[in-house]
Amino acid sequence: MNEQTAPTTREAIVLLSGGLDSATVLAKACADGFQCRTMAFNYGQRHCAELDAAARIANHANVLEHRVVDIDLAVFGGSALTDDTLSVPQAPSEGIPITYVPARNTIFLSYALGLAEVTRARDIFIGVNAVDYSGYPDCRPDFVAAFETMANLATKAGTEGDSIRIGTPLINLSKGEIISLGLSLGVDYSQTVSCYQASDAGEACGQCDACRLRRDGFAAAGVADPTRYRQDAMLG
Amino acid sequence: MNEQTAPTTREAIVLLSGGLDSATVLAKACADGFQCRTMAFNYGQRHCAELDAAARIANHANVLEHRVVDIDLAVFGGSALTDDTLSVPQAPSEGIPITYVPARNTIFLSYALGLAEVTRARDIFIGVNAVDYSGYPDCRPDFVAAFETMANLATKAGTEGDSIRIGTPLINLSKGEIISLGLSLGVDYSQTVSCYQASDAGEACGQCDACRLRRDGFAAAGVADPTRYRQDAMLG
């Protein structure tokens, strides 16, 4: 008898944005033996570089399928990420950031729940993080737990006692710890795009909150920053 | 002093499908003093008659605005309402009906939550009913309560103690009671479309589960059925 546990072959849905965090989540789910379907959202982002990155990352991870769901969050307005009349903040702000998209993770997880129900996957993974994104209500453990409870009341699976789990492997990790985890799993972070205002080719601005967090993460992990920056990016 | 309570002027989001139930919910919310924004979903239904009906009903109710959100539930497959390879059942079935769309109410409520957050509405109304739709997991009081809990953890409003409420005025009513309520509020049910396979002009088939429930409801309420049926409809 081999004492090692046989690898599981359970299926999972992984929300994949093309950024650093979700690429790490996908690598973790694959390493844990899940066969993954990935889901990205075209929600009126200002650039498509992160969707291109998501497709590349999914392909490289050999997922069962990668689905892109068109959704119209711009109908809500009120966010710098979807509303062109608001500018992306250049400095960290107190409280809930202007880049918060209303009900975004709730909507994304709801679509993942629909796909999980149809494919009979029982695990949904999302790269939320309560350390760096403490200002986002829908990145907190309480929110995730409440969504999981709701999901099990909403679906055939939950109704029949076959529980759905929302996995958040990054929720308590610092950016440096996330990067160290990903590197140990072979993630190529040069393929990921985190910048709120990346060029079409995926080059980062180096100045937005997301760029700052990411750069600090590589420094904390003690590794070189592989991010592709715009030629005119000011890194400071 | 006038002893009557002054009418409230709070804003609400009302999910409006164009069917009998949601038209009644809208009338109830208006009668209770809410200024309403209505939201309908174009999710790959087989016919657009119910969307046309939703727009007419919203216009007649003088809502603040009526929004139609395009969403792609067909990407999930697995339901007779969105998958052309499955047929609509002609007889009542046990358990969860084949017409159940995966995670549908979860997704619809999530969009309503996003709109509520942006417009600062604190009330969301949905016409779910646990009597006639006991086979649908996401029509039960437990599901609605769990969604409300999640919604208050997901949003700025809930985080700041300004609770969001999910209102379900029909949840414990029979179809006959819903119709009696609506008639007392002036709802014109000839304008609503419930049929799963209505014609483009909104004429009902008379045979599907939705038609049967609706016809029985008018009979139970003791009023004439104002539904516009197809010329070849077999009512029996």
Structure description:
The structure is a homodimer of 236-residue chains. Chain A is globular and about 55 Å long. Chain A has seven helices and five strands. In chain A, strand 2, helix 2 and strand 3 form a beta-alpha-beta unit. Chain A has a five-stranded parallel beta sheet with strand order 3-2-1-4-5, with helices on both faces. In chain A, helix 1 packs across helix 6 and helix 6 packs across helix 7. Chain A is of the alpha/beta class and 236 residues long. Helices cover 34% and strands 11% of the residues of chain A. Chain A starts with 10 loop residues before the first strand and ends in a 15-residue tail after the last helix. Chain A has one domain: Rossmann fold. About 9% of the residues of chain A have low confidence. The interface between A and B is large, with 42 and 42 residues.
SSE topology string of chain A: EHEHEHEHHEHH
Q: How much is the average pLDDT of chain A?
A: 84
The outline of chain A comes out as globular
Tally of separate domains of chain A: 1
Index terms:
homodimer, about 240 residues, alpha/beta, Rossmann fold, 5-stranded parallel beta sheet, 5 strands
Q: What are the SSEs and their pairings?
A:
The structure is a homodimer of 236-residue chains.
Chain A: E1 11-15, H1 20-31, E2 35-42, H2 49-60, E3 65-70, H3 104-119, E4 123-125, H4 141-154, H5 156-159, E5 165-167, H6 175-184, H7 209-221
Parallel strand pairs in A: 1-2, 1-4, 2-3, 4-5
Helix pairs in contact in A: 1-6, 6-7
